[in-house]
């Protein structure tokens, strides 16, 4: 009688294993198709492993409280040949045959068939360009070669000050599509005829920060922000505060209510901020400076005006110290000053969050009070975050709280 394995299934895109919570069937039980047979728990939810066909449980290998990776055989079913034919399930016997195929008959020798494996100059083993998958379809081996950088190649990249991201534009001619030293030198020779300028130290610093930031899983959420009440209130103030100050203040207050959102992941701990110091992105001639405004949650807008104007004024002429730009827990950027209505800013590598605002535009907005569309000033408010620390729902709650606080500017 054919035997069908019960595998630990893929229970989610990012889930590699699950823990056995409860066994719902025992050896000797007859089970039906899609019957829950084992209850498992992942880091997200409790789910069930189900059967693919009708059969009798002959072996349970899983043990309660033990974690198993996706693809592990948790048990075995005895099924009929008719059931296999009806459902098309893979039997244990068929899987064993795939793992241990019979030897192929000798074929006539030919130049094409006389493949050999040898180490090239980079110490990388040559291999056929294509290998068959278990279903008999050819699968390119580009993923193997493309991600391999030989020691010789790494030495040359170090000499040139290059990183892996810098060679992404180079087409590799090596095994499996890998980039060789010759490919790199050819690409550099090709670029010699192109016009170029030297990157300033600031430009290089920004590039390095963005490379490090992009090693994390970043995500962005956004919502439309009605600006009319804020704009009207601001106009009545003397001196008139910068619009950015209200955003900074609302952002700091929202983070103070839920400080874990601005935490930083270190190993298995989320380190919470001890002071709500918010950076402000300031565009300069060859990059961006991010001076930091201190204890924004503790100071009302009127009290922040002088400190803010001094800090931003010095940043625009690049007259800030290292201490002026250290210790921020999050950043605000007003990309709307460039006429942009939407953007996805990237947080600094030592920060989890960055809040951005687009240009304000007039739009018709439905009014429940009048039952008509009325003109309103609206701007996109976006939040980019480290998804390891903050989930989309948490980011949405935080962003909505910022927007809510901005509707009461007199309280800021």
Topology:
Blueprint: E1 3-7, E2 17-23, E3 30-31, E4 36-41, E5 46-50, E6 55-60, E7 67-69, E8 73-78, H1 81-87, H2 92-99, E9 130-132, E10 138-140, H3 142-146, H4 151-160, H5 181-191, H6 201-213, E11 218-226, H7 228-235, H8 243-257, E12 264-266, E13 269-271, E14 278-280, E15 282-284, E16 287-289, E17 292-293, H9 301-316, E18 330-333, E19 353-357, E20 361-367, E21 372-386, H10 392-406
Helix pairs in contact: 8-10
Describe this protein with a few key phrases.
412 residues, alpha+beta, OB fold (Dihydrolipoamide Acetyltransferase, E2P), Dihydrolipoamide Transferase, Chloramphenicol Acetyltransferase, 3 domains, seven-stranded mixed sheet, four-stranded antiparallel sheet, 10 helices, extended
